[in-house]
TrEMBL record:
Organism: Ornithinibacillus bavariensis
The keyword Coiled coil is assigned to this record: yes
Residue ranges of domain Aminoglycoside phosphotransferase in the record: 43-217
Coiled-coil positions: 241-268
Keyword Coiled coil: yes
Keywords assigned by UniProt, alphabetized: Coiled coil
Record-linked InterPro entries: Aminoglycoside_PTrfase, CcrZ_PhaseVar_Mediator, Kinase-like_dom_sf
UniProt name for this protein: Phosphotransferase
Length: 268
């Protein structure tokens, strides 16, 4: 937190903003409020210009090379789970996935497109490193499902993906603006990695077709296989994540979710 004193004077009141990295803070001084973060991606400037995140106020580079960004702090709240079904969520995700500016900026920053094959190889190697590949029936079935249906995921249009879409990361301001925050997992990949999370976690199956129509997609069996492919891949990645941090309860929860996803794939 020493770095904050290098960009703000002592009159600012600083509070942690949460998050995994512990590098995000809220700064208040009278009526002024800022969201501060160290070493945010240069991608933030393009997100701000496109209206996807709250406005970027300034960027400052420290003597050690670290970069501190300050965004306008907007009063509001995270979306409620039921609100993820709203049309404006589908509209925002569509706008992100079809933004040529975001796509171009990520490429300039050196972000390489990530295919399903890339996902599969990365996840399998991580499981092998953690000696998890044969840990349980659920994990073995998950890997088998990824391998079996890999062809369905090939030759898909790759776009900018947020990578961690959930209701906690959607900010609805008091002035009724909707922003998607926390872009640390951004990637260029199959957009189904984003909206598959939304469908599986928030939208009743009987409403999938209507939500996808709003986004601009027709629902079919191939789509559902592809969706579950990425959900299974995501679960396997999280299993390694929790294992590496010795988070046993979360590991067991993720294992149960993986079992359900494997069953859904069997029913197709």
């Amino acid at each position: 937190m020493d770095w904050i004193g290098k960009v703000l004077d002592k009159e600012w009141n600083i509070m942690p903003a949460g998050g995994l990295t512990g590098e995000a803070f809220v700064a208040r001084k009278g009526s002024k409020q800022l969201f501060l973060k160290r070493n945010s991606s240069p991608f933030l400037a393009v997100l701000s210009a496109g209206g996807f995140v709250p406005k970027l106020v300034w960027t400052k580079r420290l003597d050690n090379g670290d970069v501190v960004t300050a965004q306008k702090w907007l009063p509001g709240r995270e979306l409620r789970p039921a609100e993820m079904q709203h049309n404006r969520v589908a509209d925002l995700i569509h706008k992100i996935h079809h933004s040529a500016e975001l796509f171009s900026m990520l490429l300039r920053l050196g972000k390489k497109p990530k295919t399903a094959e890339d996902h599969f190889q990365t996840i399998r190697q991580r499981l092998l490193t953690n000696q998890l590949e044969g840990f349980s029936i659920e994990i073995r079935e998950g890997i088998d499902n990824l391998y079996k249906h890999l062809d369905v995921t090939r030759q898909q249009r790759l776009t900018v993906c947020h990578g961690d879409i959930n209701h906690h990361n959607l900010l609805l301001t008091d002035t009724d603006e909707l922003f998607l925050i926390d872009w640390d997992q951004t990637m260029i990949a199959d957009p189904i990695a984003d909206y598959g999370m939304i469908l599986n976690s928030y939208i009743p199956k009987e409403n999938w077709n209507n939500w996808l129509k709003r986004y601009g997609i027709t629902l079919n069996r191939q789509f559902i296989i592809r969706m579950y492919w990425y959900l299974i891949a995501d679960s396997l990645a999280f299993l390694s994540f929790h294992f590496e941090r010795d988070e046993k309860d979360k590991f067991e929860e993720r294992l149960e979710k993986l079992q359900d996803l494997n069953m859904q794939m069997k029913l197709l």
